[in-house]
C-alpha cells in the first residue's frame, strides 16, 4: 500500500468522525473547595467544536489522495 493511499484512508476516517460527532469531548476536573484534609472536586465535560468544513476538507482530501494513489499503480 502506497503512502498516499494510506494517508488518504486515514483522512477519510478522520473526516467521517469529525462530521458525525462535530467535536471532541473531554472531561476537566476542578478543585472547588479545600478545607484542611477535605476537598471537593467537580468534573465537567467540555466540548472542543470542530466546524463541518474541517471534516469536509479532510474527507475530500482523503478521497483525492486515495484516487491519486490508485492511479499511480
Q: What attributes does this structure have?
A:
73 residues; alpha+beta; two-stranded antiparallel ribbon; 2 helices; elongated
Overview of the structural elements:
By secondary structure, this protein is α+β, with helices and mostly antiparallel strands. It has one domain (3-71). It is built from two helices and two strands, in the order H-E-E-H. It has helices at residues 3-21, 52-71, and strands spanning 23-35, 38-49. It has a two-stranded antiparallel sheet with strand order 1-2. Strand 1 (23-35) and strand 2 form a beta hairpin. Helix 1 (3-21) runs antiparallel to helix 2. The longest helix has 20 residues, at 52-71. The radius of gyration is 20 Å and the shape is elongated. The mean pLDDT is 88.
Percent of residues in beta strands?
Answer: 25-35%
- How do the helices and strands follow one another from N- to C-terminus? HEEH
In angstroms, what separates the terminal alpha carbons? Answer: 10 Å
Structural domains: how many: 1
Low-confidence stretches: none
Number of strands: 2
- Could you tell me the mean pLDDT? 88
Sketch the major β-sheet. 2 strands, antiparallel
Spatial strand arrangement across the major sheet: 1-2
Number of helices: 2
Amino acid at each position: 500500500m502506497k503512502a498516499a493511499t494510506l494517508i488518504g484512508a486515514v483522512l477519510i476516517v478522520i473526516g467521517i468522525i469529525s462530521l458525525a460527532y462535530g467535536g471532541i469531548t473531554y472531561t476537566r476536573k476542578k478543585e472547588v473547595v479545600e478545607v484542611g484534609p477535605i476537598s471537593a472536586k467537580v468534573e465537567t465535560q467540555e466540548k472542543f467544536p470542530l466546524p463541518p468544513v474541517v471534516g469536509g476538507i479532510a474527507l475530500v482530501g482523503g478521497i483525492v489522495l486515495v484516487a491519486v494513489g490508485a492511479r499511480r499503480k
